[in-house]
Design goal:
Elements lengths: L5 E3 L7 E3 L19 E6 L9 H9 L6 H13 L6 H18 L6 E5 L6 H10 L4 E6 L6 H17 L7 E4 L7 H20 L7 E8 L3 H5 L12 H16 L6 E7 L14 H7 L7 E5 L8 H17 L3 E4 L7 H16 L41
Parallel strand pairs: 3-4, 3-5, 5-6, 7-8, 7-9, 9-10
Antiparallel strand pairs: 1-2
Helix pairs in contact: 1-2, 3-11, 6-8, 6-11, 9-10
Bound molecules: coproporphyrin III and fe (ii) ion.
Catalytic activity: Fe-coproporphyrin III + 2 H(+) = coproporphyrin III + Fe(2+)
Protein name: Coproporphyrin III ferrochelatase
EC number: 4.99.1.9
C-alpha cells in the first residue's frame, strides 16, 4: 500500500527514515493518513538472569564512559533481584494486552516487540516484520516524555537498526507522539494518588500533613534544556521538565482534596561535576519532617511499568529514606497493562492511521497534543554528538 513516509539516503550517509514532507506543513504537525502494516513495540530491555547483567549494562552504557564503579553499583541492584529485571516480562504482557485490544477492535495490525538494550533486540523485531512483508511500521516506545533518553535515543536506535540490517530502503518506522498527557497514560496516576490519599486520611493523617512526590528519571540538565523543539523556549528544564510539571498539575487538579506536591528526580548517574535535574527524591524527603509532613505519596510519573528504577530507587531507597525520617510512604502504581493505558496506546496508533486532526486528539495539558514528527535537532544529545534518527524531519 502506498504511504506518505519515505526513505531518504543522502550520498555518504546512512539510510535514515523521515516522515512525509506533509508532516512539516502547518502548525498541526499531523501527518497524512497512513496504512501501517504493523506496530513496533520498542522497549528498553533488561537482564533475565545473573549472567545477563554485565553484558546488559555494557549495552546500555556503550560509548558513554560510565565508570566501572558505577556499573558494579547498578549491577548490585539487579543482583539483589536474582539478576532479573521485570521489564521484559512487562513488555511481553503489554504486547499480549495490545494484541487482545487490537483483536477486540477488529484491527489487523501485528505487534513486533524489540528492545534497545537486550534480547529480543529491535534488530530481530524489524527483521521479522520485514520478512513477513510488514514494512510500514508505527512504533510505540515504552516511554511517555520528550528527551534524549526517553524519545530521541529510541529514534536513533531505529535509524541504526535500519542501517545495520540493510532494511533502510525497505522499512519505514514512524513513532506515535510522546503520550505524557494522553488520558490513557495519566489515568493510573490520578487513581493512584486518590487511593493513596484516601488511605492516609482514613488512617487519621490530615491532608495538610501529606506530600505528593512526583518522581521521574533525572537526566543531565543539558539534555533537559535541549528536549523538545527549541522554538518553544521552555527554559532550562526544556520540554522534559515542562511536560512532567503539566501532568502533575493535571493529576492534582483531579483530586478531591488539596494536597501539596513537588516534582522530584531519581536514579541520577554520571559524574558529580555534571549537573543533572534536581532535587533528588531522597534529599527532598529529608526536608519534609521539618515542614510538618507525616506521609509521602510517591508517584512514579516518569515510568510506564514497575521496572528496576521503580523497584530499587523508589521501593527500596526512597521508601527507606522516608522510614528513616519517620514518614509513612505509599508508592502508587505505574500504568503497566491498565486497560485505560492499553486502549490509549491503540488510540494513539489509530490517530496516525487516520491522521486525526490535532483538535480532536485527546490531550490533558496545554502543551499537548505533542507532535507526530520530531523537528530537526529535537532532543539531541550534544555530548554524544549528532546521530541520525528515524521518525523525524530531515535535519
Ligand atoms: C529518562 C530515562 C528513562 C525513562 C524513559 C524510558 O523508560 O526509556 C530511563 C529508563 C530506564 N533506564 C534503565 C536502566 C538504565 N539506565 C541507565 C542510565 C541512564 N538512564 C537515563 C535516563 C533514563 N532512563 C540516563 C540519562 C542515564 C545515564 C546514561 C546517559 O548518559 O545517557 C543505566 C546505566 C547505569 C546508570 O548510569 O545508572 C541503566 C542500567 C531502564 C531499565 C530498567 C530495568 O532494567 O528494569 C529503564 C526503563
Ligand atoms: Fe535509564
Amino acid at each position: 500500500m502506498s504511504t506518505p513516509t519515505s526513505t531518504t539516503t543522502e550520498p555518504g550517509t546512512p539510510a535514515v527514515l523521515f516522515a512525509s514532507p506533509a508532516a512539516s506543513s502547518g502548525p498541526e504537525h499531523v501527518t497524512t493518513p497512513t496504512a501501517y502494516d504493523g506496530i513496533l513495540l520498542a522497549g528498553f530491555g533488561g537482564p533475565e538472569g545473573q549472567d545477563d547483567v554485565i553484558p546488559f549494562l555494557r549495552n546500555v552504557t556503550r560509548g558513554r564512559g560510565i565508570p566501572d564503579e558505577r556499573l558494579e553499583e547498578v549491577a548490585h541492584h539487579y543482583r539483589h533481584f536474582g539478576g532479573v529485571s521485570p521489564i521484559n516480562q512487562h513488555n511481553r504482557e503489554l504486547k499480549a494486552a495490545l494484541e487482545a485490544e487490537l483483536a477486540a477492535r477488529d484491527i489487523d495490525l501485528p505487534v513486533y516487540w524489540g528492545n534497545r538494550n537486550w534480547a529480543p533486540y529491535l534488530e530481530e523485531a524489524v527483521t521479522e516484520a520485514a520478512a513477513a512483508g510488514d514494512t510500514t511500521l508505527v512504533a510505540i516506545a515504552t516511554s511517555a516524555y520528550s528527551s534524549f533518553s526517553s524519545c530521541r535515543q529510541y529514534r536513533e536506535d531505529f535509524a541504526r537498526v535500519l542501517t545495520e540490517t540493510g532494511l533502510g530502503g525497505t522499512v519505514t518506522i514512524d513513532k506515535v507522539r510522546p503520550f505524557f498527557d494522553h488520558p490513557g497514560f495519566v489515568q493510573t496516576f490520578i487513581t493512584g494518588v486518590r487511593d493513596a490519599v484516601t488511605t492516609l486520611t482514613g488512617d487519621g493523617i490530615p491532608a495538610e500533613a501529606i506530600r505528593v512526590l512526583f518522581s521521574t528519571h533525572s537526566v543531565p540538565t543539558a539534555d533537559a534544556t535541549r528536549s523538545g523543539p527549541s522554538y518553544l523556549e521552555l527554559g532550562e528544564g526544556g520540554a522534559y521538565e515542562a511536560q512532567h510539571l503539566a501532568v502533575a498539575e493535571v493529576v492534582m487538579a483531579a483530586q478531591e482534596q488539596e494536597v501539596a506536591w513537588n516534582l522530584v528526580y531519581q536514579s541520577r548517574s554520571g559524574p558529580p561535576s555534571q549537573p543533572w535535574l534536581e532535587p533528588d527524591i531522597n534529599d527532598m524527603i529529608e526536608t519534609l519532617p521539618g515542614e510538618g509532613v507525616q506521609a509521602v505519596v510517591i508517584v512514579p510519573l516518569g515510568f510506564v511499568s514497575d521496572h528496576m528504577e521503580v523497584m530499587w530507587d523508589l521501593d527500596e531507597e526512597a521508601t527507606e529514606t522516608a522510614a528513616e525520617h519517620g514518614l509513612r510512604s505509599i508508592r502508587t502504581p505505574t500504568p503497566g497493562i491498565d486497560p485505560a493505558y492499553v486502549t490509549g496506546l491503540v488510540d494513539l496508533v489509530l490517530e496516525r492511521v487516520n491522521a486525526t486532526p490535532k483538535d480532536e486528539r485527546p490531550a490533558l495539558t496545554a502543551l499537548g497534543p505533542w507532535f507526530d514528527v520530531c523537528r530537526p535537532g529535537c532532543c539531541e544529545n550534544i555530548r554524544a554528538g549528532f546521530k541520525p534518527a528515524a521518525s523525524g524531519l530531515l535535519p
